[in-house]
Amino acid sequence: MIDSRWFAGCLTAIVCFLAVGCASTPRFAEKDTHDRENAVHPRETSSAKKAEPSRSSPSGKVLLTLEGVISYYAHDFQGKETSNGETFNMNDLTAAHRTFPFGTKVRVTNLENNKSVIVRVNDRGPFVEGRIMDLSLGAAKEIGLIKTGTTRARLEVLEWGVGQ
Question: How many Cα atoms within 13 Å fall on the side-chain side of residue 91?
Fold first, then answer.
């Protein structure tokens, strides 16, 4: 016979696990919602998790380098609230990253044409598997990303932001 306390404990654990596993991570928070957790995506590279957000590099030294696929976002999000509370302006030089602190300055280089742009992280994303960053339309134009929509890129953190 099964002990009822053991069964109740297992059932509680399963319910908690399912509740946490079903939580969503929308790009934009509702106006009345202030719960902006910094979810760590399971596919994020371990080097990004080990980065120390308190360090900065006024000399322009690269603090962290990542490579992967990037994309951009624009019209559907224009004027909506970003994860850090700003109003999204698709023409600004900004970006979305899953874990980098808000305010982090990143040089993004399109590996197909070697064009680069410096962006400031002010949003969370991308939420498409296999991508490491979403750029605003303005930043995407700077590096020739508009026609292809996605490209392989190098991300170089120049300065860690202080936002969460």
Answer: 0
- Write out residues in the chain with pLDDT < 50, as ranges: 16-55
**CA–CA separation, 24 and 7 (whole Å):** 29
CATH at residue 100:
2.40.40.10
> Is 112 part of any domain?
yes
Residue 66 lies in a domain: yes
- Cα–Cα dist 50/53, whole Å: 9
C-alpha to C-alpha distance for 151 and 149, rounded to whole angstroms: 7
| Nearest CA among 52, 51, 24, 17 for reference residue 39 | 24
The DSSP code for 17 is H
DSSP, collapsed to helix, strand or coil, labels residue 42 as coil
Could you tell me if residue 9 is inside a domain? Answer: no
Sign of the alpha-carbon dihedral angle for 121, 125, 131, 135:
negative
pLDDT, tens digit, 9 for 90 and up, residues 4-24: 665 666 566 665 444 444 443
Asked if residue 79 belongs to a domain, the reply is yes
Q: What is the pLDDT of residue 131?
A: 97
Bond prior to 126 in cis (omega within 30° of 0): yes
Cα–Cα–Cα angle for 156, 41, 13, rounded to 5 degrees: 155
